[in-house]
């Protein structure tokens, strides 16, 4: 592995977008759904935020405050979700680079995946990864981009 540090990421997305499951996949943990109630730091490198922080405008300030601790903000959009919670150019709210991650690609049609990618690009994510935490699709590419080549311990 190159001599570069793993980047600390903050995952933002609506409830059931797949943020926690993606963290579990990156950490090589068993996938088990649980509702994230508060901001959680996983392996010192991933900040998992509750979906309500995006869904309720009055909580969005908490995302901006929390993002101070991150190297990247990651917008997480489920391919199976109709519509999006990310406003256009939402990336401008953060003083950090923004990545996009489409989740649940294993249970979505290609048209749904393309629409999710479009939502993320409109929100300001320049780089977008298409992933499935169940099959692992796209997760290795995301991990390599962030410097997570080795399994998270």
Please tell me about this protein's structure:
The protein has a single domain, classed as P-loop containing nucleotide triphosphate hydrolases (Rossmann fold, 3-Layer(aba) Sandwich), CATH 3.40.50.300. 27% of the residues lie in helices and 18% in strands. It is built from 5 helices and 6 strands, in the order βαββααββαβα. Strands 2-3-1-4-5-6 form a 6-stranded mixed beta sheet. The longest helix has 14 residues. It is globular and about 35 Å long. The two termini are 15 Å apart. The mean pLDDT is 91. Belongs to the EutP/PduV family. This is EutP/PduV family microcompartment system protein. GO terms for molecular function: ATP binding.
Q: Keywords, please?
A:
P-loop_NTPase; alpha/beta; 27% helix; 6 strands; EutP_PduV; 6-stranded mixed β-sheet; 5 helices; single chain; Rossmann fold; 153 residues; globular
Tell me the radius of gyration.
Answer: 14 Å
Strand content is 15-25%
The outline comes out as globular
Q: How widely separated are the two ends? A: 15 Å
Low-confidence stretches: none
Strand order of the largest sheet: 2-3-1-4-5-6
CATH superfamily: P-loop containing nucleotide triphosphate hydrolases
Q: What proportion of the residues is helical, as a percent range?
A: 25-40%
User: Mind telling me which CATH architecture this is?
Assistant: 3-Layer(aba) Sandwich
Number of helices: 5
């Amino acid at each position: 592995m190159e001599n570069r540090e793993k980047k600390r990421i903050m995952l933002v997305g609506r409830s059931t977008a797949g943020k926690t499951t993606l963290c579990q996949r990156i950490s090589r943990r068993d996938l088990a759904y649980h509702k994230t109630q508060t901001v959680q730091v996983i392996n010192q490198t991933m900040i998992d935020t509750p979906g309500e922080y995006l869904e309720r405008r009055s909580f969005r300030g908490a995302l901006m405050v929390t993002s101070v601790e991150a190297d990247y903000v990651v917008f997480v959009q489920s391919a199976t979700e109709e519509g999006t919670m990310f406003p256009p150019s939402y990336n401008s709210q953060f003083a950090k680079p923004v990545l996009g991650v489409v989740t649940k690609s294993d249970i979505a049609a290609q048209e749904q995946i393309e629409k999710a990618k479009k939502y993320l690009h409109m929100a300001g994510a320049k780089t977008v990864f298409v992933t499935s935490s169940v099959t692992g699709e796209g997760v290795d590419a995301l991990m390599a981009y962030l410097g997570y080549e080795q399994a998270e311990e």
